[in-house]
Amino acid sequence: MIPIIITIMVLELEPPHGTAVASLAEVLPGWLRYALSFVYVGIYWVNHHALLDRVAKVDSAVLWANLHLLFWMSLIPWVTAWAGENPMAPVPVALYGVVLLLCSVSFMLLSWRLDVEAETGRVHSWGSRKNRMSIALYALAIVLSLWYAPLGAVIHVLLAILWLAPETR
Amino acid sequence: MIPIIITIMVLELEPPHGTAVASLAEVLPGWLRYALSFVYVGIYWVNHHALLDRVAKVDSAVLWANLHLLFWMSLIPWVTAWAGENPMAPVPVALYGVVLLLCSVSFMLLSWRLDVEAETGRVHSWGSRKNRMSIALYALAIVLSLWYAPLGAVIHVLLAILWLAPETR
Amino acid sequence: MIPIIITIMVLELEPPHGTAVASLAEVLPGWLRYALSFVYVGIYWVNHHALLDRVAKVDSAVLWANLHLLFWMSLIPWVTAWAGENPMAPVPVALYGVVLLLCSVSFMLLSWRLDVEAETGRVHSWGSRKNRMSIALYALAIVLSLWYAPLGAVIHVLLAILWLAPETR
Amino acid sequence: MIPIIITIMVLELEPPHGTAVASLAEVLPGWLRYALSFVYVGIYWVNHHALLDRVAKVDSAVLWANLHLLFWMSLIPWVTAWAGENPMAPVPVALYGVVLLLCSVSFMLLSWRLDVEAETGRVHSWGSRKNRMSIALYALAIVLSLWYAPLGAVIHVLLAILWLAPETR
């Protein structure tokens, strides 16, 4: 379902109205927001794959934890469209952050559930340290967006870079 | 095909027109209807998977029983859009119930067909007792919706909870 | 790709404008056209599956014969939308027939190519007799549609029933 | 994800406004642009498949090189819609060429990364000679499009034929 989410997002991207080079500038913010969402969904795609690869058997609790994550991810195209059409408007940028926060929390719940399944005795993964730090930063971005939207947008970009960049195994 | 249905539903969800917090309230009913449909398609996804896992070989009768189910499920995004754009309007809520009823009946027909294939001698599954009760409640919801739409909507929510909650094997 | 085609077709189906029962009558022709297209794509799904199951190895000629079929099938949602929005208008109904004809011809070319691959010596499958008869009837439907559209629509329905019904192995 | 891209492109293709034969002429340029994009995505589908078939194990660098390619391919439906709605307008035709160029470059980067993984000692595939020549021609098409758009469109068609035609192994 993640490849479908990542692909349909482009349908929310309107073609420019004119045919001048200037009309490209008009769609640029929506396009950058699309690129950012593409990177986020891509990060989830890669990590989700790595997470489920470790799993031997899924029961219905895992299936629902997975659907819970997919629900919040399915809202990414919608909130990308809203934030892209209204660049740097406080509420859309904040809502974008809310959806990213909920994706992050539900990813943590899924990996926690998989740990319980694995009966490893100790439940270590309330997400990695990086995961917990991200959640705090998403929350901060929401508050800052409502005050001055570009600050929220900068945090969204920085977090995407954080998740893309190190990838130490 | 079920992951595609669940994902494209979000395309029917319009971004709000303004950028104020109040504009989110305006799209809230459509959003809740989307969440409800997501849960329903999710329930079918999980149960459909469980149903087909038991099957060794499919013939064309099973394929067509399956396509029959998918046909009614493919209408969920369309009826979700209509009911979501016109919250608590009698006819859209009733039609939403009609589509859920037909999904339920065609799921029952598919599981019945799979039983015939399995040549188990006795055909036990005109659906489970829960399945038959659901069909009666969907029918009730259709009638009540035409009289007072919120009653139908409440039954749709209760039935989703019923199917989500117990899941005893 | 066929499950994607069959699913996105529903996106071309507009929700009714009002919320009265009468507003359903207004969308009924589009809805019936959708149901007919669903059955056609379903028939191709089942037959395409059966065709490729017999194949051991695909080379690039087979891949392109397959993409050729998928190209014409990808136009079914588009021509369904046009014919559905303009019920019984001669040109849309005729074009619907043209697309079905080209799907049928390209399915025949694909199965012919697979026979060549199989090096069976004799190339028997310029399609089955049913296939060749269908092509003649699609061509007839195109001509009749331009004269009186409902005649074309009747042939489209009859051919769908023909392909659904017997299915003798 | 490539089958999803190729299929959703048809959603950007509007049904004609009237029902006369003449109204088909009006949508013809968009339709031809769709057919060209279908062929391009088809070529990538076939070559991408062949490329990944040779690969034993993917690490995250390969995954991201692959997502990089898919990002530029995901823009094909969008730029097809813009160029199709404004046939032979210089900027849309040039942008179409830019997206094709970036797809080609990212395909080259992916195949280069796969060679590094394979630790073959020598990195031979900055793409094939055909690949490098195509990139030069895409760049030429961009410049020519801005001067006289049909010249760019002719190069796009010729390059599609070049990639379709020989296919010597």
The backbone outline of chain A, from C-alpha atoms, is: globular
* DSSP strand content of chain A: under 5%
Radius of gyration of chain A: 17 Å
Low-confidence stretches of chain A: none
User: Which oligomeric state applies?
Assistant: homotetramer
Number of helices of chain A: 7
How are the secondary structure elements laid out?
The structure is a homotetramer of 169-residue chains.
Chain A: H1 2-8, H2 21-53, H3 60-74, H4 76-85, H5 90-117, H6 129-147, H7 149-164
Q: Can you characterise this structure?
A:
Four copies of one chain form a homotetramer. The first copy, chain A, contains seven helices and no strands. In chain A, helix 2 (21-53) runs antiparallel to helix 4. In chain A, 76% of the residues lie in helices and 0% in strands. At the B-C interface, helix 1, helix 3, helix 4 and helix 5 of B face helix 1 and helix 2 of C.
Q: What's a concise summary of this model?
A:
The first copy, chain A, is mainly α. Chain A has helices at residues 2-8, 21-53, 60-74, 76-85, 90-117, 129-147, 149-164.
Keywords:
homotetramer, mainly alpha, globular
